[in-house]
Amino acid sequence: MAPQVPRLILAFATLVVGFLAFRSQVVPDSFGETGFYRADSVKEIGDLPMKHAGEETCATCHSDFAEATSHVLGGVACESCHGPSLAHAEDGASSKPNRLGGDVPCARCHEEIAGRPSVIPQIVLEEHTGGEPCQSCHTVHEP
Question: What's the pTM?
Fold first, then answer.
């Protein structure tokens, strides 16, 4: 039984060395520098072109919606429903943001999910709407 122990140790050591060699080839050098992610990704993401304009930019032209709507007062940003709108902010004639066609934007936040905070009104969309669009009964900016 004594010859088995050195073989087991050798097999284990081979696995460890193989794992470490594989890991050194696969895991990026910046992984773990500032937490459990690749630190280089912060700069790479920062170098991507911007897509969102921000609420302040929307409010420069759409102050009527930005001041008193319940969604805005509740902390929901314009682009949460309308999508990225930087192209629209830069040239409104050539690019239009999502105009809330259908119920998908509403359902994203209001479809009943057990883990959602109870302060967000929740519905079972199919039962609540009867197939009608939300906008047939609700005003989107003042639901």
Answer: 0.60
